[in-house]
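explain this chain.
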Amino acid sequence: MSLTDTRASLELLLKISRELATTLDLRTVLSRVLFLSLENVKAERGSLVVLDENAHPVEAAIVYGQQLHAHTLDQLQLVVEQGLAGWVLQHQQSVLITDTSQDDRWLRRPDDSVDKSGAKSAICVPLKARERLVGILTIVHPVPGFFTAEHLSLLQAIGDIAGIAVHNAQLYDSLDQAHRRYLELFEDSIDPIVLTDWDGQILEANRKAADTTGISAAGLQNRTVFQIHEVHMDRVGEKFANLRSGETVVYESKLNRLNAPPLPVEVNVRKVRVGGSESLQWILRSIAERKELDALRDDLAAMIYHDLRSPLSNIVSSLDILNVMLPVDTNPSLKSVLSIATRSTDRLQRLISSLLDINRLETGQPITNRQEIKVADLINEAVEAVSPILESKQQRLKQKIAKDLPTLSVDVDMIRRVLINLLENATKYSPSAGKLQVGADQEDSEIHIWVQDSGPGIPEDARESIFEKFTRLEVEHAPKGLGLGLAFCRLAVNAHHGRIWVDNLAEGGSRFTFTLPVHQQEKA
């Protein structure tokens, strides 16, 4: 394969990676993979069949005459049971057929006769993710002998990328279905409710409480609230002191059930007046579906990290090689494209590192990779990373860094990513030609670092929730994402024994501020 062909192949793989990274919709993924594959090998027709865990077809894209064609599951089942796709499913190996009329693995159709379309050449490759077969890609050209070993290698590379994309889309689809099921169950159900006196003795229980615990309403009245779930005394206070003032307390616990494992619940407890006397109302709302959803989300985050790390490394290496191979007098446009690709992979690497850090920090692992760095250097490195975005939106960034600030002992890469996340958010939510500010000063034994934007501001009721995982502001025309950036920022800052918060500005926009201790002492 020539250098030109190698570059074209790398550009195609990069294009496919970019396009697939923009969607998690399964049908969109299938059609884009198939159309790009057909276009770049100049094929006549093709199919991409998606398989479930039992190797049964569940979805597909079939293209003929540059158009998608409808199909049924029965038709797809025949495709994977017979012919070339069936052989690949059985052997899980790629195959190249130079002449379909001479190979028994090809399932002949009426239009394959000599007086019609005749013999063809075909390639069929398996799509795998995490060592599991998730699909089969078949490409057909009307001329025998057209496909070569280079075509096969290219389609195998496409298949590696597509396998991960299909798996991601399937996981996202199951996540979405689980979310919808949870909402339906939540909206349609009646929550278990018990009323107790100030000693925790159950006075009344509703039907749902009896059904859920497996204990009759009369039987529940012989128990205390402490017997049916673990009460968080740090939240309700000794002898329910925090509830006497009318405060509503919310926490998570597990509801004990007869002949069944404990049920995870969200407990809402508050003082109520029933029949002229005060009682405590305990609403024990099932969050089992939410816990499953959280687990799926965690799986999705872990999948993104583990499954993207290897192909991303290949892309980074390829870009490095291309950068070395480019002559000095290379067309500036080509250099610009390479620069964009390099910056995009840098950003993706930061995202993957943040995903890994989220999982690590949530388990309470301490910060160990500390280095001394000047605050100004830390800010300048972050600003340099986002400067292309600032230039493209013609935004002005002002730096306001106090002089003679002490150095910080931090995980430099982690705190740099915190700053980059905040700066990228500021550019996203600020208008073109908007004004931004980044600054730092010292207050007592803390360094305060802030990023200020000129966007719409943060609603009062969202100033805490935006730092939680998978939380996004419902703002018109706001950029979409997984809602992990600010969650990472809070975990990273907290792990350094700092704080992070957001304030709205009187002149418009918002300011995100985080602190880092000057004299950091490791906690035992």
Observations:
- Residues 490 and 500 are 6 Å apart (CA to CA).
- Residues 182-189, 520-524 have pLDDT under 50 and may be disordered.
